[in-house]
Design goal:
- It is a single chain.
- The chain is of the alpha+beta class.
- A two-stranded antiparallel sheet has the order 1-2.
- The longest helix is centred in the N-terminal third of the chain and has 19 residues.
């Protein structure tokens, strides 16, 4: 959990580099999804919406998210 900001930053940079190489731009803001609540072994997915399918590379993959309801939260402070 302590390294989550660095992990998200590195993931965002890897996705951004992949999009740039593919000549694509994000169609919306970064999303981060937490697939479990295990604070020691947190399963995190992040990405940007894009206009259409793109090839993946390494840990960067394209996938279509199912239609769903979402909740958002903005935390500011210590």
């Amino acid at each position: 959990m302590e390294s989550l900001p660095q992990i998200i930053g590195a993931g965002c940079a890897a996705i951004g580099a992949h999009l740039a190489e593919a000549g694509a731009t994000p169609a919306g803001p970064l999303y981060v999804s937490y697939h479990n609540a295990g604070m020691r072994d947190l399963d995190v997915e992040m990405g940007f919406p894009v206009a259409g399918p793109l090839p993946g590379r390494g840990k960067v993959r394209f996938r279509v998210l199912p239609k769903c309801r979402e909740a958002t939260c903005l935390f500011t402070g210590p």
